[in-house]
Design brief:
heterodimer, A: mainly alpha, MetI-like fold, two-stranded antiparallel sheet, 12 helices, B: 488 residues, alpha/beta, D-Maltodextrin-Binding Protein, domain 2, four-stranded mixed sheet, 17 helices
């Protein structure tokens, strides 16, 4: 404290630069910051902000995407979405997907990260690559392969499970409403699991080795080390991982679209496929008139719900952090 | 050593790149590869299993027109309408294209997507088509021709029977031929025999519903045989019972009867268990391998099976609840649509030349010869000239499809009615009932009927000069071709 005060005193005693010069220097620094930020801002404006603003306009029209929107319907699209049971069912599926994928994936990713972080483990980089591979594989490709596997080898899988007395009847894994969402959840966990693994690994590698050494000298066992060093030190990065994982699961689209297209009878429809089917005319090969206005209204309602959910998430995390006295978001 | 690039090096590099680009351009152009044609026209379709016929026509066309090359792009069928719409929005639409099913043709024309063809499609050109081929509201709008019929009315769906499976189940006639089912009871008995003789190893029925369409084909085929003219078609005003000008899913008992029949078969485990999740293509392959004995599909199955040398099957259409003739048939409009020319094409004459070629009687003849379907030109559809037995069966059943009522002929303003999509549609309802998510099929059918009729009523309100009466043809005899009189 004393040192800081002294330094501050020195600074105040020094000849202050003229304000114009200071402004120029500050501007120069800021200018470069803006230059670096500009590309990202342009992309954000063009691909995020503009579509949001533009789609808000479409929400007031009945429009099939051809020509200019002219059939003004006011708030009818919102009314229709709010009263559409399929929308709420899709929202429910999205939350179920997130509720299963996020915790399972995080626990598995943390466990595996602990194993891979072991310096004595041979071929650690190979395993890391192996677990990260699904992440860099397109969800569409994964969906097609899984669909082919399940449909072509579904009989063999069923026969095996029946022989093991695990099931008593043949199951159409992607065509049975009791199982289809579960299969999508399993594939979803496997597909993006690598991201969280890498994030946790990065977090683990920032924990100073000295802390573990000191704990060992104090006689702490493996569980105690994990409980009192690893977990607290990972808390900050862990919160970010949770937020990213939740946001990622709410964006689920491609896997569902390729595996089941939301069927059978909307049993796996998530909000993003619901919006897509509204905007591009039906969930099947039939020619159903697309409704961009309704799709935009659904996007808007979903966006509002997600913002509300994010605010609740941040508030809860902050209050938890305060209770623990760690301050900040964590 | 200077790191600067000299102007000569730069030019050399640029020339190299341009050459590479030109080569790449040639190599990506499948049909126009190596062509020295002065003009290349772009052509879009969704014909996958018919690609052999299209490619052959392109080859013959290019030989006959050395100055024109056709660059074909086959788009995925269920996304075709979206892709065409996007192409028009980005000014990248092809010069000539198969007419997408959505939006309605009238809307495509009002958006100036398509070129009127009257300059070339003169009276004498139209004269080679059968009578009533050019109809206001179908392929003619405001007196201008935009497209033309390509195929003759034909039964769009059939029940395919696997000879091997039937023979193994003892389903044969005294002469050794396969006993083909004609009635719902025949189909049920055949299924029972297959299930019991195979010990459950072969499923009696199978389909591939991953695109949520094929289950409705079963309903469509069976209700028509029972006398329901709307079938289970989806999209536009298809599927309506024109006798009353309404959808009748809830009020016509045949729908519930067929759904109950399908559920009965399902509860006996007679459907191939993965039917709801496999694709139609996979179902086609599984039928070929004898994993199930019967499936519902269209003539598009046949070229693929022929390619694999699988010919041991038969087809029947419109099975009836009791013995006798089907009480309703398949219906199509007079006239029809196939391809059209982009209104903004810079190569209108060349695009027309390709249009004209596709519609030529010779191209139609090759279409029939290759077993793709029936031609709009009756002389091409002689069953005697067809040697392949299953396709001959198909040609012989052409009487099961006739011209039905056409509201746009009676009142051309009907083409302005834009019916919004109703969800859940009949495909969704069937999937819900089949998977047990909808416990009360009758209630689901009633709700669908109400929603569709309400959507039509709302759409009529927005179309000046159109009323509900425009969709009613009380004098329609379901077993005969119907001639719609203008303004009647």
């Amino acid at each position: 404290m004393v040192m800081t005060a002294t330094v501050r005193e020195d600074v105040t005693r020094a000849e202050p630069p003229r304000s114009a010069e200071r402004r120029r220097a500050r501007r120069r620094t800021y200018l470069w910051s803006y230059v670096y930020l500009a590309p990202m801002m342009v992309l954000l404006l063009v691909f995020v902000v503009y579509p949001i603003v533009a789609s808000l306009g479409y929400t007031f029209y009945k429009w099939d995407g051809i020509g200019d929107p002219s059939d003004f319907v006011g708030l009818d699209n919102f009314r229709q979405i709010v009263h559409d049971s399929i929308f709420w069912r899709s929202l429910g599926h999205t939350f179920v997907y997130a509720a299963f994928v996020v915790p399972v994936q995080l626990v598995l990713a943390l466990a595996l990260a602990l194993v891979l972080n072991n310096k004595k483990l041979r071929f650690a980089s190979f395993y890391r690559t192996l677990f990260f591979l699904p992440v860099v594989t397109s969800a569409a490709v994964i969906g097609v392969v899984i669909q082919l596997l399940v449909s072509n080898f579904g009989d063999s899988i069923n026969d095996l499970l029946m022989k093991l007395h695990l099931i008593d009847r043949h199951i159409d894994w992607l065509g049975d409403p009791h199982f289809a969402l579960g299969i999508i959840i399993l594939v979803g966990i496997w597909h993006t699991f690598g991201y969280n693994l890498v994030y946790f690994l990065a977090g683990l590698q920032t924990i100073p080795e000295e802390l573990y050494e000191a704990a060992r000298l104090d006689g702490a066992g493996r569980f105690a080390t994990f409980r009192y060093i690893t977990i607290p030190m990972l808390r900050a990065v862990g919160v970010v991982i949770v937020i990213l994982a939740v946001i990622g699961t709410f964006q689920i689209f491609d896997l569902v679209q390729v595996l089941t297209s939301g069927g059978p009878f909307f049993a796996t429809e998530v909000v993003n496929t619901y919006i897509y089917h509204l905007a591009f005319g039906g969930s099947n090969a039939n020619a159903v008139q697309p409704d961009i206005g309704l799709a935009s209204a659904a996007s808007f309602v979903y966006g509002v719900l997600l913002i509300a959910f994010s605010v609740v998430q941040v508030v809860v995390l902050r209050s938890l952090a305060k209770r623990r006295g760690t301050g900040g978001i964590a | 050593m200077s790191s600067r690039i000299s102007r000569r090096t730069l030019l050399r590099g640029a020339a190299g790149l341009a050459g590479a680009g030109a080569l790449a351009g040639c190599s990506s152009d499948g049909n126009a590869q190596g062509s020295k044609a002065a003009t290349t026209i772009t052509y879009w379709d969704w014909y996958a299993s018919q690609a052999g016929w299209v490619d052959n026509e392109i080859k013959l066309f290019q030989e006959a027109h050395p100055g024109i090359a056709v660059k074909k792009t086959t788009q995925v069928s269920d996304k075709y309408a979206d892709l065409v719409s996007l192409a028009y929005r980005s000014n990248n639409a092809p010069d000539i294209l198969m007419v997408p099913k959505s939006p309605q043709l009238s809307q495509q024309i009002s958006q100036s997507w398509l070129l009127p063809l009257d300059k070339w499609a003169t009276d004498s050109w139209q004269g080679r088509f059968p009578e009533n081929s050019f109809v206001e509201g179908v392929d003619v709008f405001s007196g201008k021709v935009y497209t033309a019929p390509f195929a003759a009315p034909a039964p769009s769906l059939q029940l395919y029977v696997h000879h091997g499976v039937f023979k193994d189940a003892g389903l044969t006639n005294p002469d050794g031929s396969v006993k083909l089912p004609k009635t719902w009871d025949d189909v049920t008995s055949a299924a029972e025999a297959i299930a019991s003789k195979s010990g459950g190893k072969v499923a009696p029925f199978g389909f591939g519903n991953s695109t949520n369409t094929t289950l409705a084909w079963w309903l469509d085929l069976f209700v028509r045989g029972a006398g329901t003219p709307g079938g289970a078609a989806v999209g536009g005003i298809d599927g309506m019972d024109y006798r009353v000008g309404k959808w009748t899913f809830g009020s016509d008992r045949n729908y519930l009867d067929v759904i109950n029949l399908l559920l009965e078969w399902k509860n006996k485990n007679w459907f191939y268990p993965n039917s709801m999740s496999i694709s139609d293509e996979q179902a086609r392959a599984f039928f070929e391998r004898g994993r199930f004995g019967m499936t519902v599909g269209g003539v598009w199955n046949q070229p693929e099976w022929t390619k694999h040398k699988f010919t041991d099957y038969s087809l029947v259409t419109l099975p009836t609840p009791t013995a006798g003739d089907p009480k309703a048939l398949f219906y199509g409009p007079p006239g029809g649509k196939f391809v059209a020319v982009n209104a903004k094409t810079p190569h209108a004459d060349e695009a027309w030349a390709w249009f004209d070629w596709l519609y030529s009687p010779d191209a139609g003849k090759r279409w029939v010869e290759q077993g793709q379907g029936l031609s709009v030109y009756a002389k091409n559809n002689d069953p005697k000239s067809v040697t392949f037995a299953p396709f001959a069966q198909y040609v012989a059943m052409s009487g099961a499809a006739v011209v039905g009522p056409q509201p746009t002929i009676r009142n051309p303003k009907v083409s302005a009615v834009q019916l919004p999509g109703v969800k859940p549609d009949i495909n969704d309802v069937l999937a819900g009932v089949y998977t047990g998510q909808l416990k009360d099929p009758q209630a689901a059918l009633n709700e669908l009927t109400d929603k569709m009729n309400q959507a039509l009523a709302d759409a009529i309100k927005k179309a000046p000069g159109v009323s509900a009466k425009d969709f009613t043809f009380a004098d329609w005899d379901l077993t005969k071709p119907y001639t719609t009189k203008p303004g009647a």
